[in-house]
Every structure is written in C-alpha cells, then in structure tokens.
Amino acid sequence: MTFDRLMQHAKEINDKAIKNSMGELAQKKGAKFPGSAEYDQFKQQYAFIEPMFEPFSRLPDPARYDPLLADLNAAMATLNTGSVHTTQLTNDVSLANPHLDKMTTDGGYLQGWTGDAAMAFKANFIDTFKTVSGNQFSVLSTLKGILQAHREMWLKARDDIDKIAENTKNALDNAGGCGKNQWSFGFSVVSAVVAVGGVVVAVATGGIVPLVAIGAAASAGSAGVASLTASGDSVDTIINSMKQAVDELTRHIQEVENQQIAEKVRALTEAVRANKDKIVAARPNLAGMNDRDLTGDSGMGRSD
Amino acid sequence: MTDLAEKLDGIRVHVRAPGTDIEAELRDRTGITLSFGESVYDFIDESALERVLAGVARLMWAGWQRQYRAAVDETNLNIDVDDMRDSNFFADRAKVEAIGESNDARIVITAAGMENFSVHIKPGTVREIPEDQFAANASEAATRLIRDFQIKVDELKKRYYE
To answer: Is residue A163 part of a domain?
Structure first.
C-alpha cells in the first residue's frame, strides 16, 4: 500500500507522460526535434493529472473508524445477554455481561410487592428484559456493520486509486519496449460491502422481525471485481485509460456509498423506528401519574 | 521504491562466448560493450568472429528477456500472449528484420525477430583495425540493431494495439 505517496505518484505520472510524449514526437518521421515550446505544450496538456488525483489523497482514513468500532463493541458487550443468535457482526464481541442475569433472577426480592404496578413491572420489564436487551444488542450490531462497511469502502477506494496510479506509471515505463504492453485497473470498492443475514429483532411473545443489515466484505480479493483493461504504448492511450479508470472509480464509490450504504441505513433506521416497542421497554404508567394514584393499588401498590 | 523504468535501465546482461575469451555486456537498454581476452583478437579470423558474435548476440537477447520478464513480473502489467491479437502480433514480430551497421560499414548485424542473428565482418578488418576500434564498431552496430528493431516493432505495435 503506497497510498500515502499518491500525490508523489501523480507527479511522476505527469513527468513520465511529458517525457514519453517528447520521445514520441522525436521519433516521428519528418517532424522537427521537439524543444521547449513542445515541452510547455505537453506540460499544459497533462496539467490536469495532479489536480485529478488530489481529492483522492484526502479520502478518509479507515483507521479513524477503529475507535468508534471499539466503542460500539464495548456497548454491545454491556448489552450482551448471550442469548442473541451470532452473526458476522457479533462474533468479535466479548463475553456476555453477567450483570444482566440479575434482572431475571430477582424473583425473590420482589415477592413481597403486589398490585398493578408490580404486575406491570413483571410483565413489561422483567419478562421482556432479555429480549429487549438482546434487541438493543442487535441494533447496535447493525450500526457496527454500517461503520465496518464504510471503513471497508474507503480502504478499497484507497487501494484502487493507489493501483490506478501505480499501473499507469508501470504502463508508461514499459511503453516503447519490444513486447506487449497491457494493463488493468480494478475496482475492488464495488465489492467492499456485503449484506449480513440473520440480524433480527425478536418479539417477546414469539417471532422475529429481520433487519436488512450490511457489513464489510469478509476478505480481500473477492470474486467478480470489476475492471478495465487497456493496451498500447502511446501516452494518449495510457493517460486516457487512466482518466477513464479514475472517472469509473469515482462513480463506483458514489454508487457504493449511496446505494449499498446510505439507502440501507435509511431502511434500517425506518425498521428500527417501526419496531421501537421491541427495542425500548414500555414507558411505565407510573410516569406522570398523580400522587394519589401513585400510592394506590393502580400505582405502586403496597408492600406486605 | 525503484520504479519499473529505473529497473529496466538498470538491467545488466553479461555474457561470455562459449569456448572463447570474448565477453559482452548490455547496459542502459541499448549500450553494448565488447571485450577480448588477452591476444584473442590477434589470432582470430573474421569468419570465426562472425560466428562468435552471433552467439553472443543470441545469449544477450535471451538474458535481456529473462531479466525484463523478472522486472515486469513484479508489476501488474500483462506481457503474455492471451488472445489471437497477441499471438498474431508476436508471430509478426518474429518476422521483423532489423539491421545494425557500424559507421565504417565494416560490421553488419542482422536478425529476424531478434532470432537467427547473423554478423558480417568485412574481410581484412581484424588485420586493418585495432582491437579497441573493432570493439567500438561492434558496439555501434549492436546498438543500431536494437534501435532499428525497436522502431520497427513500435510501428507493428501501433497496428495491433492502437
């Protein structure tokens, strides 16, 4: 990975393009040997190369996602009841949080509490506690998947632009030789994001609502990476194919970000909102109750 | 990190003619130097020298090809035959006749597709010019042969690949 030196590579491409163009002109039969006027003309012709690479040199640093992912992992560990079905998004979360077990083994402490509130507390909070915590855990896992997908997208985009620069340089260097000169530009960013199955919101009374989650592609070199292949020796051919590759990469990055990430995030947000009752425990009736009711049977009830 | 151009510029091919103390080296893509062992030049005749130099040229081309491929293998470039177009190109390249002649016209090297090298030395040359002059002339002819081949292949490549 030589992404950190992308702008240096862009400058080298520019220099090589000018040098090869001067060479091509010098070889042309009948043309006068190129001088400073021609040099200036080529310099102007290829002046677009460095500015074309410049925005790519500022692509977000994938490493900056790591602290956010660590935070999410920690939050997930806190909510981990150990009962949620494992997916690609949960398998690196640490062990279940044993404190959560206390909520479901508290029966003894509450035996003496009766009345509507006691019954509601049991039905709406204790009985559903594990499901609700598990659902919160699952929702957090989708957030983590989104961050991982986005990180992977930038990682692949950086790798792709780096290789475009490198392969262009090599093609220019190999031009004018006695053999074939063919190169390819790959767009691995296209396969950076994958759908993750098995992420669900559970219903306390039974049943599940699946969430359409996304994540980072499991490993490098995924099959079916789109690419562009070209061959030839002239600077025009090489530089044009590079330009085309950069345009395509830009389009691929936008497509991945919009269609494979942003749209999925919107759908997830809606699904979470629609299933809020399964993710957040019901608001107790006690909240906002007047003082008289609060101490009556419909409120806190009595302790025997 | 060295780029491909620097690697190719840096290729050195050193060969020694089988059975004779004559050595040659290729540097900087087209620069050739030829050197004779002690008193070898004094006792060799033109026809033997022609055979030896043709052999040296063959070894040198093979050595260049090997190192060139090794350098390109470190990149993502594809220089292999993949389809009909490539195989037609290489078939035509094998027919490209190149020629290199020394300034004094005493030494002429020809090759078809950089195979079947043949060297022609004007009779009497060994007697008439000293060793270092001969070496310089041979180097001139060899460099011209390479350039001639390159220019002709360049035309061919334009037909096939652009």
So the answer is: no
Q: pLDDT averaged over chain B? A: 94
CB pair distance less than 8 Å for A178 and B151: no
Task: State how far Cα A137 lies from the chain centre.
Answer: 19
What is d(CA A271, CA A300) in angstroms, rounded to the nearest whole number?
Answer: 34
Q: Residue A95 region, left (φ>0) first, then alpha (ψ -120 to 50), else beta?
A: beta
Q: How distant is the alpha carbon of residue B137 from its chain centre?
A: 14
Nearest-angstrom CA–CA distance, A163 and A2: 9
Q: How far apart are CA A156 and CA B104, in angstroms?
A: 59
Domain count along chain A: 1
Per-residue pLDDT tens for A98-108?
A: 777 777 665 56
Sequence-separated (6 or more) residues with CB below 8 Å from residue B70: none
Residue A119 lies inside a defined structural domain of this protein: yes
Q: How far apart are CA A79 and CA A69, in angstroms?
A: 15
Tokens 């070894």 sit on residue: B59
Please tell me what DSSP assigns to residue A99: G
Task: Give the residue from A11, A28, A231 with the most B CB atoms within 10 Å of its CB, the best one to mutate.
Answer: A231
Kindly state whether residue A19 falls inside one of the protein's structural domains: no
Quick one: what percent of chain B has pLDDT higher than 90? 91
pLDDT band for position A291 (50/70/90)?
confident
- Which residue range(s) make up the domain with A140? 62-158+177-295
CATH 1.10.10.10 fits B4-161, yes or no: no
What secondary structure letter does DSSP report for B103?
T
Chain A neighbors of B113, CB-CB under 8 A: none
